[in-house]
Amino acid sequence: MTVWTPNPADVLPDVKLRAARVVEALGTWGPGKAGRAAAAARLRELGVDDGVLTEALPLLGAAPAAALEVLQAQYGGILPGSVSVLVVCRQWRGRPDGPARSGGTTVDVRLRAAPREWAVTQVRANDPGPPSPVLSTPARDVLRSARIELPPAARADVMSGAVHDSVLTALLRLSAAYRIGVSVIRSGHPLHVFGTTRLSDHSQGRAFDTYRINGRLVVDRATPRRLVTGYMRAAVRAGSLNVGGPYLPPGGGGAFFSDATHHDHVHAGFST
Fold it and tell me: In which residue ranges of the chain is pLDDT below 50?
């Protein structure tokens, strides 16, 4: 299992690393270390107040052993002195000598600046809900696509039926030209645009974030800028009215925006 580390080009790599290590500690345990009390002890070893466990319970369980792999950590929002990091993960639970059950979630870790290191103030693990008995054709096509990489929480979002067909159709259109690494669709994203009272398109099933294009990380300095800006333009052609990324496409119109939060992914939002 690969241990996740931030990319050197990240704007706040130490913040991402702290968020990832907290989620790893909560979602990984050996024999005799299951349950809330043991998880609280693991948090205290990291210097984190165990009060954050209240919203992190989906990461825990009664299985005798579990292992958690962080697939990606991206920003949910960056403000002076406070940050939201969305930790995308896969988790295996089971007995050390038996088959393990695979799952996973996306965790919204909130941190604030402190004198020695960033303090973890909230760990919110999301449960996408049960799968819908009836799915639209675009939903079924996205789930079957070999060119659209969906982490566990995003896959569960699609299976729940809570993602608008505008999002799914755009993913399918984009996948004709690109291999898409999706990080977040609905679950795990802050309910409101970070630092505001405005409801996020993600929480309404009307947006998706891409962290990898054709196998290249959006945040990586070695990824050609034209690949990212070309993908951003293609997202607009696929119907997105609100596309954010690490930089603005040359001559781009009002559909595009760029800021530190979107330094590590491309956001595509839709009106319906």
Answer: none
